[in-house]
Design a protein that fits this description.
This protein has about 300 residues and is mainly alpha-helical. About 75% of the residues lie in helices and about 5% in strands.
């Protein structure tokens, strides 16, 4: 009973980027601008895909889902950070912290899985073009998205339940701007061996597995492109993958960079600042990546914005 009360009374303090009050307005302004750009950009991608019938294909179906997930992914962390800066508070309730962590893991996992599904889509389109419409039928596309969602929810639920069994003191400082799983676990007073074990096992399985699938897909794609005789054919095949390749590089590059920098120089300010790259910057840049190099997307966006 004492352990349960101690857990309920816990208050978490998100230390954020810097304790210097002079930097708070600048931090608030930058985060707000990036968040607004991220939300507007991704919503425009979704609306453009919905409004243009020639974009109702598997590739753009997955892109619309990725854009929606990016909006949700960013929304789990940034609004709370903006509110805390505005009211000059660092606190987040125990329930709020667990909820934020739960949804962050869901949408982070969905981002990862959708990028893998999109790699599979490109693999089928380039390596098996004659069977593409049969393999990537609407039913399979919906099933793949639902499978990604189910795995992400179960993964997030497992870790959240494991955190609920931990006990915390009534005053816990988290050296981050949101409730990140690893940071929360290592602020617990009780034994965290099971949490650490499941966290590393989950990272190996649910991050290493999709990454291996992406690498395999692009290995087969590269082999197929190399077998194409004409330069124009090679360029056309590669151009259909360029945006997705750039998005993958940005997503995995920033995530790996954050955790490598955190292990090399474990300061709260540097880790929090680096985490902005994959929580805000990557979702913000995805619409730009997919609209700049894609003629069909640019045409759909022009029609949506200017009714041309």
């Amino acid at each position: 009973m004492k352990l349960s009360n101690q857990t309920r009374l816990s208050e978490f303090l998100l230390l954020g980027f810097s304790e210097d009050p002079a930097l708070q307005p600048l931090t608030f302004g930058l985060l707000l601008c990036m968040y607004v750009i991220c939300v507007i950009g991704n919503l425009l991608i979704i609306l453009a895909i919905l409004s243009a019938t020639h974009l109702h294909t598997p590739m753009y179906f997955f892109l619309a889902n990725l854009s929606l997930v990016d909006v949700c992914f960013t929304t789990t962390t940034i609004p709370k950070m903006l509110v805390n800066i505005q009211v000059q508070s660092r606190s987040i309730s125990y329930a709020g912290c667990i909820t934020q962590m739960f949804f962050f893991m869901i949408f982070g996992g969905l981002d990862n899985f959708l990028l893998t599904v999109m790699a599979y889509d490109r693999f089928v389109a380039i390596c098996h073009p004659l069977h593409y419409t049969v393999i990537m039928n609407p039913r399979l596309c919906v099933q793949l998205v639902l499978l990604c969602l189910t795995i992400s929810v179960l993964h997030a639920l497992l870790h959240s339940l494991l955190v609920l069994r931990l006990s915390f003191s009534t005053h816990v400082e988290i050296p981050h701007f949101f409730c990140e799983l690893n940071q929360v676990i290592h602020r617990a007073c009780s034994d965290t061996f099971l949490n650490d074990l499941m966290m590393y096992f989950g990272a190996l399985l649910l991050a290493g597995g999709p990454l291996a699938g992406i690498l395999y897909s692009y290995f087969k794609i590269a082999s197929s492109i190399r077998a194409i005789s004409s330069k124009q054919g090679k360029y056309k095949a590669f151009s259909t993958c360029a945006s997705h390749l750039l998005t993958i590089s940005l997503f995995y590059g920033t995530v790996i960079g954050v955790y490598l920098s955190a292990s090399a120089a474990p300061s709260s300010a540097s880790t929090a600042t680096a985490s902005v790259m994959y929580t805000v910057v990557t979702p913000m840049l995805n619409p730009v990546i997919y609209s700049l190099r894609n003629t069909d997307m640019k045409r759909a966006l022009k029609r949506l914005l200017f009714h041309k």
